[in-house]
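Protocol step 4 of 5: obtain the predicted structure for the target chain.
Materials: sequence only (see below). No template structures provided, no constraints applied. The aim of this step is simply to have a reference model before the mutagenesis design in step 5. Sequence pasted as it appears in the construct record:
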Amino acid sequence: MKLAIRSSRNEVIKIQLSSLLGLSSKDIARSNTNYSGISLLSLKDTSITIEKSIRNIEALQVDEKTARALENPEKTKGMSFFNSLKSFAPVEQFDHLNQILYAYRNKM
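Step 4 output (structure tokens):
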């Protein structure tokens, strides 16, 4: 499972995930995106099910294609609209990402 998060909340969200899902810190890998206000968390435990709630965690579940586009939007076909995130301050990028993903999913 991949989660897009606010970079500034990285440690807090890792603690929440550990607490709510019973993951250890070695099961959660963080990576940077092309946008300083957004980071990705990869949860290594494949036994995680959606029934285990992440609703109270400020994170967006993303698929592999979206994660790759956040890391390098120019190389991911059809996802260049993420470049609009660069026009926002890092503290606003996560909120704008939420809006972009909502619009993108509703067009599909």
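Step 4 remarks: The first strand starts at residue 2 and ends at 6. The chain has one domain: 2-107.
Proceed to step 5.
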